[in-house]
Design goal:
With 266 residues, this protein is of the alpha/beta class. The chain has one domain: TIM Barrel, CATH 3.20.20. 40% of the residues lie in helices and 14% in strands. The two termini are 27 Å apart. Bound molecules: phosphoenolpyruvate (PEP). The site of phosphoenolpyruvate has 13 residues, from β8.
């Protein structure tokens, strides 16, 4: 699904709910989102859409998507680097795979800042996800200080280079470039900055995972994406979608972001 029959990368719009919506709210939200996209005659073959609810919602979301045969995809917000054992509070990739999670977000800046996750741990989690057939959405991004000191690309490139150290060549991954200063701030990066860093990250994928992976890997932009600015990011050749936080919690706003093709020329 990452690449169409013509070799183009399928755009990917991902909604990171963070710690919002319990399992009952999740069911209502996914139903409304599915109706909104159906009303708009949304083509899921043209744009892939996934939601990333809290762990406790995953079984409910899986059951709804399966019962109603919805084309929405879903994933988790984190995964353990370990398969099982004495790791209180952690969730195994095996458990996520059993719930048919297609994706898992790894290395979100909130995990890096609040839980001190390192690039090496992010890499170990990516390997664990892939082992269980789950595509890791590997998040990288610079802080405002990093930006002032090193420019936009250096830190995300270093983070991804380390995270991919033990990932096998040709692996299917998604990369999310999320400048930390843009997350939840209302101040998005410019499309030109997103493109510059996305191109640099694609080069890292090329070096680490090979040419085919570099052409197939979706690189997302994340950080204050809204319906009003998604089109400007989607016009960039190396930006293949968005990881959306706050705006993914509003059905109409998120639905409009998913339908960026209808306003990409505006
Ligand atoms: C995020 O948390 O991944 C994110 C991009 O948040 P927001 O869209 O709210 O900036």
């Amino acid at each position: 699904m990452a690449v169409t029959a013509t070799g183009a990368r399928t755009p990917f719009i991902a909604g990171n709910w963070k710690m919002n919506l319990d399992h009952l709210q999740a069911i209502a939200f996914v139903q409304k989102l599915a109706w909104s996209l159906k009303d708009a005659r949304f083509d899921f073959d043209e744009v892939e859409v996934a939601v990333f609810p809290p762990f406790t919602d995953l079984r409910s979301v899986q059951t709804l998507i399966s019962a109603d045969k919805l084309s929405l995809r879903f994933g988790a917000q984190d995964v353990s680097a370990h398969d099982s054992g004495a790791y209180t509070g952690e969730i195994s990739g095996a458990f996520l795979a059993a719930l048919e999670c297609g994706y898992v977000i790894i290395g979100h800046s909130e995990r890096r800042t609040l839980h001190l996750e390192t690039d090496e741990q992010v890499g170990a989690k990516a390997v664990a996800a892939l082992k269980h057939g789950i595509t890791p959405v590997i998040c990288v991004g610079e802080t405002a200080d990093d930006l002032a000191e090193h420019g936009p690309s250096a830190v995300p490139v270093a983070q991804l280079t380390t995270a991919l150290e033990n990932v096998a060549a040709g692996a299917e991954i998604v990369v999310a470039y999320e400048p930390v200063w843009a997350i939840g701030s209302g101040q998005a990066a410019t499309p030109e900055q997103a493109e510059q860093v996305a191109a640099a990250l694609r080069e890292v994928v090329r070096t680490r995972l090979g040419e085919d992976a570099a052409s197939a890997t979706r690189v997302l932009y994340g950080g204050s994406v809204k319906a009003s600015n998604i089109a400007s990011f989607m016009r960039q050749p190396n930006v293949d979608g968005a990881l959306v936080g706050g705006a993914s919690l509003n059905v109409e706003e998120f639905s409009s972001i998913c339908r960026f093709k209808s306003h990409v020329g505006t």
